[in-house]
Amino acid sequence: MLRLSAPPWLRDLAGAWIFYSVLPAWPAPAPRFERIARFAPWIGVVLGAMQGLLWWALEGRVPLVAQVALVLALGLWLSGGLHMDGVMDSADGLAAGDRCLEAMADSRVGASGVQALVLVLLLRAGALAMLGPAAPMALVWAAVGGRVAPLPAMAWFPYLRPGGSAAFHRAHGAGLAAELRPALLLLPPLLLLPWPGLTTWPVPVGALALLPALLVPLVLGRRLGGHSGDSYGACVEWSESLGLLLIAAVLTAWAG
User: Fold this and answer.
1) DSSP the chain
2) Could you report the average pLDDT of every consecutive run of 10 residues in the chain (256 residues)?
3) pTM, whole model, 2 decimals?
């Protein structure tokens, strides 16, 4: 009996599920990790939707501050804190000047890293407090945009640590256009989804979350002179937070 093997893209998707979340691994196919970054936005849909469902379940049942805190806590848990570590290490590296790579490799967190962590969480908390019923869809869009951000970082800038643990992303990349294809497939269904509390349908405002996904890796890459695994993670978290805030600001201005 012939046994069909899974296509490489499906194995990469299974690998992305394991790498980018703490959710239980699939029973099949066997994961592959060579080109998982292209499927990170797909994982973002799942993680953002789970946060959105929690927001919806808590809305009107707990105080807003508790609702925001619990949704943020769920997001951190679902990702295993993978990218937030990069936020802190990248901030410490930027503050260290010529000792940038040394500071980023240090397992200890400095004052700049703590400040960056607080800023990211405050930006996200403020955005959620502004969004209200629109938060679930905004969370999905922001999670997707944040996970698009490492793709241009990998394509546009050299990797700062030859042989580093995240070097495989760039080594196996097939170019930005090819790596973006899975993310582009998400856009049509996302654009057709209705936003609770808004009368206009469909609402393209979620695509605003993609702007930081292009700008953050560009700015950070120029500041560092390239990217590493830490800065890839920083791109995810800063892009997700700024995307969420941008959506909240536009919807607030729209409602006003």
Assistant:
1) ---PPPPHHHHHHHHHHHHH--SPPPSSS----TTGGGGHHHHHHHHHHHHHHHHHHHTTTS-HHHHHHHHHHHHHHHHTTHHHHHHHHHHHHHHTGGGHHHHHH-SS--HHHHHHHHHHHHHHHHHHHHHGGGHHHHHHHHHHHHHHTHHHHHHHS-BSSTT-TTHHHHHT---HHHHHHHHHHHHHHHHHSPPTT-SSSS-GGGGGGHHHHHHHHHHHHHHHTSB-HHHHHHHHHHHHHHHHHHHHHHHHHHH-
2) 69 93 91 91 97 95 96 96 89 82 76 92 96 93 96 91 68 81 93 76 81 95 90 95 95 79
3) 0.92
Residue with tokens 């002179």: 225
